[in-house]
Design goal:
The protein is of the alpha+beta class and 190 residues long. It contains three helices and six strands; from the N terminus they run H-E-E-E-E-E-E-H-H. Helix content is 41%, strand content 23%. Strands 1, 2, 3, 4, 5 and 6 form a six-stranded antiparallel β-sheet that branches. Strand 4 and strand 5 form a beta hairpin. The radius of gyration is 24 Å and the shape is elongated. It starts with a helix and ends in a 5-residue tail after the last helix.
Length: 190
């Protein structure tokens, strides 16, 4: 009788909890298996829409499979590069280290090396302060530029940085600088 009491008091609840955990884990794995392809498809669609927005003259894009620029390992680097099939330019996705963590942005560059647009696609910066550097009005100042003179927005005479959001401004700016370096390393649009 003593063993039965110990089993029902200590072992049975553990067995029940383990069984519940296994069932929940299986349910989560099944849900992920169903949702993952849909999430991936939506991410690709969203990225293609952003590319078309940043380089409107492009018809379709092909991913560049050559060497990608790394300005600072794990801090500022090109994630991917897509070249317009009609030769009108390229769209480069860059990841930089910002105030809130990783910041991902896409930069359109035409066949003459001029920036056609910049779009921040993912970030963890402070809403209302750091995100001022992501504002389309702020990013518009980069359109038409073919060169940046510094990796820091504060030190570059071509642009105005956001006071109070220096880290975020510099992250956006350094990412654009990196994209222009990628363009140059590729020898422009081939």
């Amino acid at each position: 009788m003593k063993n039965n009491s110990t089993f029902s008091k200590y072992v049975a609840p553990i067995v029940v909890l383990v069984a519940i955990c296994l069932v929940i884990t299986a349910a989560l794995a099944a849900t992920y298996g169903v949702a993952k392809p849909i999430i991936d498809e939506n991410a690709i669609k969203k990225a293609n829409e952003a590319r078309a927005e940043l380089l409107p003259a492009a018809d379709t894009f092909t991913e560049y499979t050559g060497e990608l620029t790394v300005e600072e390992k794990d801090k500022v680097y090109v994630q991917d590069c897509y070249v317009a099939d009609n030769g009108s330019g390229m769209v480069i996705t860059v990841v930089t280290k910002s105030f809130g963590g990783a910041l991902t942005e896409m930069i359109g560059i035409d066949s003459n090396g001029a920036i056609t647009g910049v779009k921040v696609t993912d970030h963890a910066d402070t809403p209302g302060l750091g995100t001022k550097a992501h504002d389309p009005k702020h990013l518009k100042q980069y359109q038409g530029l073919t060169e940046l003179t510094s990796t820091s927005a504060k030190d570059d005479a071509n642009v105005t940085h956001i006071t109070g959001a220096t880290i975020s401004s510099n992250a956006v700016h350094y990412g654009i600088y990196c994209a222009l370096d990628q363009y140059k390393a590729m020898g422009g649009v081939q």
